[in-house]
Design goal:
The chain has 241 residues and is of the alpha/beta class. Helices cover 39% and strands 24% of the residues.
Length: 241
């Protein structure tokens, strides 16, 4: 479904990504891990069109999307959440999701249809009881769920999740992990997931890709990655049980 070939991206003298190649197959949940500054979010930004790679190419469903504008890539079927959640703070939760429903899709829908779809998504992520709350009043856990709902409103076939568990307590982590599984199971969406909460990645991912200093250093099942010497040295510190 997604193919990255030889992605290289530099910012001045800093090489953020160096010859990174990977493939995400339809129906997978693939984790992307690595130390801070290893290039994970930069890779997402290249895939989504925020950055254009210096070298390499990105293919989605066989189509070269390298350098396409973010809104074009969104309409092709790639949705995305962000580490720093920035909803429309003075709008309600429902209005935030309606906005994504109206403007994030390739086909036109009416306000009535947008409201109906937004309500369904809020129910799906567990935010129905907050639909009339102003987004700026939400706590971090609810903001994370709102961010996922907004991304789902664009009807993606591939969803990029960027640290959706950051700042959450163990109960909230479990809730979001179950939601990620539900997105794949009930909506049939493929997931590429950057995360630092290792127990979540180890539990929910089919495969894990590891970046360090802009390079891919490992790829495999969660069990394989947990015991990989290069990953232990660069990121985990010790074998992950």
């Amino acid at each position: 479904m997604l193919l990255c070939k030889g992605i290289t991206k530099s910012f001045g003298g800093l090489v953020a990504l160096r010859n990174v190649s990977l493939e995400i197959k339809e129906g997978e949940i693939v984790g992307l891990i690595g130390p801070n500054g290893s290039g994970k979010t930069t890779l997402f930004n290249v895939i989504c069109g925020i950055y254009r790679p210096d070298k390499g190419a990105v293919y989605f469903k066989g189509r070269d999307i390298t350098g396409r504008k973010p809104y074009e890539i969104c309409k092709l079927g790639i949705g995305r959440t962000f580490q720093l959640v920035k909803p429309f703070r003075t709008m309600t939760v429902l209005e935030n999701v309606m906005t994504a429903t109206l403007f994030g899709r390739s086909k036109f829908i009416t306000m009535t249809e947008a409201r109906k779809q937004a309500l369904k998504l809020l129910d799906f992520v567990g935010l129905s009881d907050m639909k009339n709350r102003v987004a700026g009043e939400l706590g971090i856990a609810s903001l994370r769920l709102l961010e996922i709902a907004r991304a789902l409103a664009t009807e993606p076939e591939l969803l990029l999740l960027d640290e959706v568990m950051a700042g959450l307590n163990p109960v909230e982590v479990s809730r979001v992990g179950a939601l990620v599984e539900k997105v794949r199971r009930d909506l049939g969406i493929t997931i590429f997931w950057v995360e630092h909460v290792m127990r979540a990645i180890m539990k929910h991912a089919d495969r894990v890709i590891v970046l360090d200093r802009g390079e891919k250093i490992a790829e495999g099942t969660p069990k394989e990655i947990a015991q990989d010497e290069k990953v232990i040295k660069a990121y985990l510190g010790e074998p992950y049980a």
